[in-house]
Amino acid sequence: MAKPRGFGKHGRPTYNQAKKIVGKFGNESEAAGIFGVSRITIYRWQYGRPYGTDGLIPGHMIERVQRAARLHGVVLTDADWRPERIDYETEGA
User: Fold this and answer.
1) Which one, 29, 40, 43, 72, has the greatest CB density within 10 A?
2) What DSSP string runs through 11-79?
3) What is the CATH number of the domain that holds 29?
4) Number of domains making up the chain
């Protein structure tokens, strides 16, 4: 089965948790600097499996993200942490 066009070699993530939270910190580069990880790490959170974490923040990073949010005045709500499935059929319609 061919991959859908427009999503690069890494595929589409199932969930949008990482996208929502990274967006609260600005962009991938800014979030990487704040969290103390590489920009590639942040991008991988937003890749589908097996290359990434399928749109989810890895468990071992949650405390670091929460601490960074407190230090930088970023408000993360329960809705931000709640992963939602991305519906690619209706997205962009």
Assistant:
1) 43
2) ---SB-HHHHHHHHTSSHHHHHHHHTS-HHHHHHHTSPTTTS-TT---GGGHHHHHHHHHHHT----HH
3) 1.10.260
4) 1
